[in-house]
């Protein structure tokens, strides 16, 4: 039976990194996949000369999002229209129109409308600290959970990273120095394995996931840490996508799918 999966993300490129494999698996299985992005990622860093004359980073990142969505088999892309809030503690957090400064119910109503239109069966958000503490990621959690309540969406999964898996990779790596991986504070990064309820093996879609990440070239260049990983190491790092199903018993056996 086909279902509708809605994945809710903070910025363009987050979807490819966090849930790209799950999205591609769902599409390949005949399910409808909808991507909702809260902001345009306007405050992302961009190398000089990358943008065309007159082109804004917002325009480029929207284009990249649609390109990545095509790779992953996404049926619909929707932007909620909020402004990127920047990193925690920056003045952009409180700017008018920023996602962080928007009242939760105001933002949630926009998402709930999409959930209702799509008759969503499953919604993905982030864990309660946004995996690594970015204000927009934290807001995706609170807004997404509230929107699911408004729309009575049956299943909500919190995308996270397996902190213990990351630690093991760093400690056991000999072929590649993963100490340079973009994990600044491991003890607050992601969630411990004991809290995770769902581990989705996305190795069958690893090429699509990597290609979707590469489509976000303004943020994930060919020389980025992500894309410099040899495929076996990339698969080890990104071949499983981790979730916490809201309402599930974290002590139960790991689920292997969102549907």
What does this structure look like?
The chain has a 7-stranded mixed β-sheet, sandwiched between helices. The protein has one domain (4-245): LmbE-like (Rossmann fold, 3-Layer(aba) Sandwich), CATH 3.40.50. With 259 residues, it is an alpha/beta fold. The model has no long low-confidence stretch (mean pLDDT 93). The chain is built from 8 helices and 7 strands, in the order βαβαβαβαβαβαααβ. The chain has helices spanning 14-28, 57-72, 104-118, 135-151, 163-172, 206-215, 225-228, 231-238; strands at residues 4-9, 32-39, 76-82, 122-126, 155-160, 198-201, 240-245.
Any descriptors?
259 residues; alpha/beta; Rossmann fold; seven-stranded mixed beta sheet
